[in-house]
Write a sequence for this structure.
């Protein structure tokens, strides 16, 4: 069964204290791995898409990496406005137009000033 | 702003009732996805439509149904509502449906009393 597990469930950081969030996955044929940020009561906001092991993407203080079994979201020198829940999702399968995402339960990040 | 719109933002109704949630995808996107987010389950895929046709189905209850119209907007119908149906319902869209980034709308918060 396709599965996504995120750790830790919650993370508290001081402003400027860098850290990493983990997303491990089991999937039959990875078509893509996606990171989203979600603020309370809002829709998930797209951050990154990764397609193959070894791929890395960066955006401001965030950097996402992908291996064959897991992905990391590195946060460098976080600020209070980075506080949110970070969601990891995978898309499984081979070809075709089926595209449902399988989500992890998220990591709730709090950054204190 | 992702470009995906959803109405209404909030919906309060009683058990046994029926409601309709509406979604307009980003301009040019052919696929629409519906997800349910509850506190204990996280984001769960319900159903996908591609250019008017059903493409993939998740753990969608028989009381729930959806359709995508010729103008590509989609509606999710929830009937015989139960207390446990209270959740956030998100719509997402992508260009085709396989391996691409999905962009999420702001969601509809449903409260069943």
């Amino acid at each position: 069964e396709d599965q996504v597990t995120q750790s830790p469930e919650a993370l508290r950081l001081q402003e400027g204290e860098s850290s990493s969030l983990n997303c491990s996955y089991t999937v039959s044929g990875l078509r893509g791995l996606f990171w989203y940020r979600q603020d309370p009561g809002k829709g998930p906001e797209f951050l990154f898409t990764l397609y193959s092991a070894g791929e890395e993407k960066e955006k401001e203080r965030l950097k996402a990496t992908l291996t064959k079994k897991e992905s990391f979201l590195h946060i460098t020198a976080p600020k209070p406005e980075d506080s949110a829940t970070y969601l990891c999702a995978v898309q499984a399968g081979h070809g075709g137009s089926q595209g449902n995402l399988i989500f992890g339960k998220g990591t709730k990040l709090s950054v204190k000033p | 702003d992702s470009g995906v719109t959803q109405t209404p933002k909030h919906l309060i109704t009683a058990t046994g009732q029926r409601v309709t949630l509406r979604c307009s995808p980003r301009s040019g996107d052919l696929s629409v996805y519906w997800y349910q987010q509850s506190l204990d389950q996280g984001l769960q895929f319900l159903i996908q439509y591609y250019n008017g046709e059903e493409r993939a189905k998740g753990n969608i209850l028989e009381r729930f149904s959806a359709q995508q119209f010729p103008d590509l907007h989609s509606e999710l119908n929830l009937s015989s509502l139960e207390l446990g149906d209270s959740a956030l319902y998100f719509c997402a869209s992508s260009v085709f449906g396989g391996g691409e980034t999905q962009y999420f709308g702001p969601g509809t918060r449903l409260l069943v009393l």
